[in-house]
Amino acid sequence: MAKTLFILNDPPYGTERSYNALRLAGSLSKREGEEVKVFLIGDAAACAKANQKVPQGYYNLEVMLKAPARHSAEIGVCGTCMDARGIADAELAEGTKRSTLEELTNWTQWADKTLVF
Question: What are the structural domains, with CATH classification, of the chain?
């Protein structure tokens, strides 16, 4: 079984790095024999904010996080980064959880591949 960790650093909007990372994580998580974990750190913590409202026809990263989550991917959000951005635990999107650098360390050791966006 292949194990891939995605680490996202960029904000949900303004660049397409987080968008493309979640496209790949969602696609990979659907494949048989693949295990995926996603860690949102720095400005990427905002990707997990619930109730995002974007213009019609524009991608919504909250919705995109649901694809890997539906396929059993764990999605962690850096707690320190959440605090720095005023994001409370209750504001996290479904399928995501407050996490720690310690958990990211464990996930890094768990992974066969680590992709950083």
Answer: 2-112 (3.40.1260.10)
DSSP class of residue 86 equals T
User: What's the token pair of residue 44?
Assistant: 């990427």
pTM value > 0.90: yes
Q: What is the pLDDT of residues 61-76, one digit of tens each?
A: 999 999 999 999 999 9
In DSSP notation, 2-71 reads EEEEEEE-S-SSSSSHHHHHHHHHHHHHTSTTEEEEEEE-GGGGGGGBSS----TTS--HHHHHHHHHHT
Nearest Cα neighbor of 48 from 84, 94, 117 is 94
Q: Is 116 helix (H, G, I), strand (E, B) or coil?
A: strand
